Sequence to fold (494 residues):
Amino acid sequence: MQLFMLQPIFPEIYITISALVLLIAGAFSKGKNTIVSSIAVAVLAVAIYMLATAIPEQKQVLWGMFAVDRFIIFGKILCLLGGMLALVFGRKWLDSEGEGKFEFPVLIMLSLVGMLLMLSSTNFLALYLGLELSSLSLYILAAFARDNLRSSESGLKYFVLGSLASGILLFGISLIYGFSGSIDFEQVGQILYKATAHNREEAMKLTTLPYGLVTGMVLVLVAFCFKVSAAPFHMWTPDVYEGAPTPVTAFFAVAPKISALLLLVRLLHEPFFEISSYWQQIIVFAAVASMLVGAFGALVQTNIKRLLAYSSIGHVGYILVGISTASQKGMFGVALYLALYLFMSMGMFGCVLLMRRKGEFLENISDLAGISKTNPYLAFCMAMFLFSMAGIPPLAGFFGKMYIFLAAVEAKMIVLAVTGLLFSVVSCFYYLKIVKTMYFDAPAQQGIAFDEPAEFGVAFALIICLIVTVLFFVFPAFIMNSADSAVLSLMGLL
Fold:
């Protein structure tokens, strides 16, 4: 096989080789995390450049098992950005907590390779291989602080429930293969088209379709609902978010969800588009359940990481609203929302990682009392990210939700859109509760401020997240055009 034939997956090959080299180099550097993390960030930056400058034509490689187009490139860049920010924000935490081991950036890189392959997959076997490569690394990362009981517990819970979801996914794939004779996305889509196109009036009746194929699709959707922590398959999320090291939690909140949600979009609009009336019911139910659990589950939380876990469940619900529309505008809203959520979420977790007092990392919301006086810049950043997550204009989160709900209204899913708006109003309460704690509550320890951030890289990354969140309405063209071209590519219109 000639080398140029592998060009579409050069970034994956490059990151894999770099991770193996760093693994060997780390073994001879006495386990120092700082140097390895810096090199890993540079490697990911180069990979992003490779993707951004690649010719965005539809290509396939390795006997058609992997493909690349604008939509796939868009998702890969978002995942890599999430990995870079997690490494930048996490280096200080790992060194301070005595967990500064070189395996951390290597595991992040290997997990990203799995996500990139998963996004490029064109059949269910390649999808499963990419998903498992990513998941195995995530299981280890969740329990990375192995001397910490909470971290070990979160890793075990994530592994057990993740294995169950993988088994459900495999069972669904086996049913799809058994009743269609193929694991290729395009061929499965053609089979469903032929099964429904002979009589368009009866096209969406179950009697015109193989029962097993629809059942396989349902099982695949259930597995993906687990991976993106959509209710009612969210049970692992609060415990894992709280117990895992905070940089790992930040990574969990962004990269795996972006890759899984964008792949879910491809699945529903390539092989399963012809039976959209079936999967729409499942997605609508998951969307409403996720918004409900996210909105009311966060109200009683005192740990900020658990609160952000329920918040992420709610955000997945909003994204599923866009997916359920099965329309071009809905997909545009999903792509835009994910791009903006990347910066909102990572910025918020970057602020959480700056909650240090005398070198001790704090997680309770009550620890934020009065920091507007002792740490005004940190309080301002957190307030902006929280306001954006709540959807308050003119911050970035408002535009993400606006396009999602407008797509639902245009698809005549008005009840779903109104339900999403109501839950969004409920979520404002717990976001504003944190802002009230920072600006109006008296500090528990008078005169004791958080430690100042010591690293330029952390401050720079936080400023980038803040600029995108606060000033998106000033220069929205780049992100919106990228999301639009990605969706047009997915729909075959570009």
